[in-house]
Design goal:
This protein has 160 residues and is mainly alpha-helical. It is built from five helices and four strands, in the order E-H-H-E-E-H-H-H-E.
Length: 160
């Protein structure tokens, strides 16, 4: 026996919740790279704040110490912020859901845009190579999450 209600279109279907889209490998890879970078910075600043101040980013470069006196509280805050971003971003990559990826990207932008602007306008103590490396590395922390935010797949209708 045919179900007569099966062919009836429900006008409320237009308002049905939509399923979250799944991320592709490229989006996941960018999220993994962001999470790894934040985890490295965050762990270093939390575990060894004086070393982070004196030695970041490493390789005989000293970016943080050129920008003012040591403040353990602020260095640990930077560590905690980066570890929080790392966890959120890693979960977005692992779960592969577009909404979580966009949330992580937005959080990155809230942090990285003012961070980039500050450093890009305070390059005085740095040589040309360090200034360029700093601007490029911080620009990547803006462009990568911006790309994720703008290109994650759209939501799609739940199939019934």
């Amino acid at each position: 026996m045919k179900d007569v209600n099966a062919s009836v279109v429900n006008p409320r279907d237009d308002y049905a919740p939509k399923a979250d889209a799944t991320l592709d490998r490229a989006h996941r890879a960018v999220l993994v790279a962001l999470a790894a970078a934040a985890a490295l910075v965050g762990a270093w600043a939390q575990v060894a704040p004086l070393s982070f101040y004196a030695d970041f980013p490493g390789l005989r470069q000293f970016w943080v110490s050129l920008d003012g006196p040591y403040n353990e509280h602020l260095i640990r805050d930077v560590g905690g912020l980066n570890l929080g971003l790392a966890v959120l971003t890693a979960m977005a990559a692992v779960h592969g859901r577009a909404r979580l990826a966009r949330l992580a990207a937005a959080c990155w932008l809230i942090f990285s845009v003012p961070h980039f602007v500050y450093h890009a306008t305070h390059l005085g103590p740095f040589g040309a190579i360090d200034a360029t490396a700093q601007v490029v590395s911080l620009a990547l922390q803006v462009t990568a999450p911006l790309w994720v935010l703008l290109t994650t797949p759209a939501m799609h209708r739940k199939s019934g």
